[in-house]
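Retro notes, item 3 of 5
We never archived the inputs for the flavin-adenine dinucleotide complex last cycle. Fixing that now. Sequence and ligand:
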Amino acid sequence: MKKIWPCRYRRNTIFANVFCELRHLATRQQFSTTSNQAVKLRVAVVGSGPAGFYAAYRILEKAPPGIATVDMYEKLPVPYGLARFGVAPDHPEVKNCQEKFEEVAQSPYFTFVGNTMVGAQPLAVPKQTPSFTPNHVPLSLLRNHYDAIVLSYGADSDKDLSSSVSGLNLAGVYSARAFVGWYNGHPEFRDLDPDVLAGEQAVVVGHGNVALDVARILLTDVDALRKTDITEAALAKLSENKVKRVRIVGRRGPAQASFTNKEVRELMMLNGVGFIPLDEEVLSPFLVNSAKLARTTKRLLQLLQKGSTTPAADAKKHFSFDFLLSPASFEALEGSSHVASAKFDVMELQGDILSKDTRVKRTGEVSELPCSVGFMSVGYKTHPLAGLEDIYNDSANRLNNEAGKVTSDGMDTKGLYSAGWIKRGPAGVIAETMYDSFETAAVILDDFEVGAIGGRSCEGWEGVRADLGDKLDWKVVSWSDWQKIDKAEKERGSKIGKEREKFTNQNDMLAVLE
Ligand code: FAD
Ligand code: NAP
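Structure as it came back at the time:
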């Protein structure tokens, strides 16, 4: 990896001298053990998604060689977070970021601590207590052994609408997060078995890009997915998929949708799939031709106006965008526990129909749509790790922070930083995540430069491991272990003409290492 001596280190002569000396020392020791004496900044990264990897990359790239080490903790035996378990299988080019992450992991100053979750109860909790989960490391233990901790553990639950939407527990209603996790082979969702055989009518609630991923997977000819890394179980199920009509339903108008043009264009171009044209009432010439529209919004509206490559009349499957409908309930027929329809409150825009931020209010009308399978795609939800409750902002859906530095009125937050979705809320593509991780890395290095962190004698993962002692009774997955799992997945895939066939449970992943 290219190492740069940042100009700002040269600005301060005292620092420059110290760093020059350390760099000289470190260069000589570069390929020896990472617990060498030159290391002055020990960083733990919690989570191996894009945010964690880009933060690690930037710290190792910008810090003088050998000054910093990064130990990355990941709860699963496999890395990459949503770059593996979120990004759709028909978007392989997006997963190319994994090549950069692989490069980061080759650094002699990087250690992967996989299959190890951060954020447990105190170690004092006896093992026999049922709630004790063995492969947990308390955050407090990490704080003893690192100068800086980058919290980049993403968002691992759904925005909960159960207080305002009833029937979410009916058979045939799923969270989009679970569905996406299922077709991407996330161990948590391997048994989801979504009921796409119950009928032809799917409803996807939400107008974000996850909703479009769900719709595209439901509508795509399954043969087009066979060579991707979608799981065999998902392929088998989707090959029986009966869905012929997908309604993608949002509570606001077309100018307020959060999906992006590229993803809409992709849906419009699906082979044999027709878009049901929008009424003029929704997509009026006034709206589309308004000079006040932002350029990307104007382009989006033009795409919606143009419609699909396959005309609706010639298509075997169809989709629509339904606007100004806020979810109220999923309903079953009498005597059944399976969803049959979805009810929505009809909304109207309050104010400027061209603005992205315009809110809606209820009109008092209700609309009911047929629904044999439903998906809630209304966004992800983050949570605080145990001990971080006081610095978590529930309504903002993220940790309190300034440019990545965790902030608090009362709690000691020295050395705590955040990156990615837990830093700014669960929104943004990988490029945005990369830039905000770079911002966090810069803040850490600045704090190190001014002496706010670093310079204590701490041991990183070696120290954590020593303190865990015989409580460390689980298999810690190293980077070379992951490479074996990776190789095994690729071999499984090549036998059936696919890029890879993922293992979908931890035991199968770990069995490769036996
Ligand atoms: P994550 O990627 O979620 O990574 C968090 C990691 O932390 C995970 O590996 C998790 O297992 C681990 N973890 C969680 N808790 C702990 C713990 N306590 N201890 C240790 N480890 C823990 N962006 C694009 O640019 N293009 C796309 O096509 C695209 N598709 C997407 C599809 C979906 C369905 C979703 C949801 C998002 C998509 N994105 C896409 C956005 C992109 O995935 C995010 O910007 C990015 O993944 C956020 O990175 P992150 O590291 O903050 O979180
Ligand atoms: P999102 O973009 O925030 O969309 C969430 C949708 O849910 C919005 O339409 C929102 O409507 C709606 N919603 C939220 N609360 C609601 C409520 N109470 N009632 C009704 N509707 C509600 O989130 P996402 O789709 O989960 O995507 C997350 C991020 O990942 C996004 O940044 C996305 O771009 C990214 N991603 C990218 C790709 C890609 O690049 N191909 C693919 C997938 C995901 P309002 O706007 O009215 O709140």
